[in-house]
UniProtKB/TrEMBL annotation:
This is ABC transporter ATP-binding protein. It comes from the Bacteria. PROSITE patterns: ABC_TRANSPORTER_1, ABC_TRANSPORTER_2. One of its GO terms (molecular function) is ATP binding. SMART domains: AAA. Signal peptide: none annotated. It is found in: Cell inner membrane. Residues 6-239 form the ABC transporter domain. Keywords: ATP-binding, Nucleotide-binding, Transport. It comes from Trichocoleus desertorum GB2-A4. Belongs to the ABC transporter superfamily. Nitrate/nitrite/cyanate uptake transporter (NitT) (TC 3.A.1.16) family. It is a peripheral membrane protein.
Amino acid sequence: MGQPKLAVRHLNKTFQSQRRPLVVLQDINLNIYPNEFVCIVGKSGCGKSTLLNIVAGLVPPTSGQVLMDGVAVQGPGRDRGLVFQSYTLFPWLTVAQNIGYGLKLQRLPKPERRQRVAYYLDVVGLTQFAKAYPKQLSGGMKQRVAIARALANEPDVLLMDEPFGALDAQTKEQMQQFVLNLWEQTHVTVLMITHDVEEAIFLSQRIYVMSAHPGQIKAEIGIDLPTQRDMELKLTPEFLQIKRQVVHTMRDRLEPG
């Protein structure tokens, strides 16, 4: 498959506490190839968010490396866009201003900035809400703005941390379909973490399953499903068989050794 766009090599993270060191991540190794959509799935507390924050350059590892195109990550960078569970929008800025915020920091010329904001407003279907403020939007719309803001910086990899965890079930499914369609349209490389097994299977081409205490990669599971997907896919025998495999992998204890 060639060189991975994003690679994690022998990554460990230990937090120091007054009682004893807490090992959160142990010997994490994974590869994300160009234009892939990969999910990391695991129970709450397994270290998924810590891993994503290290990949984003927000938290340093205790040891090991994160590599972008073979170059070690030293901190945050424009090559990695990040979308959190909370929308993290600026309430005093309009939708268009939120999307263009990073471009303004980059001092992109105004005409180019307006053009790019308009493009991503169209991509996420929010052109008519360009002048609206976050308080006027639904939860799903706010998350679409957050995704558009991350994509407007044209990152090499989009990192998503439980992006639909705060949404109701119906909106969550709508956003899953939206993100899948968006990925098919843009082919941005995506690494997303979630504890929702169905979400991970529906969206991704590969899944890494994590175990907890300490967080380790327990298994890598390929998702052999059609590229074109809709919600009916979740009811098919093929989907349910993969779900059974992932759930059993998460449930079984990691073998010693």
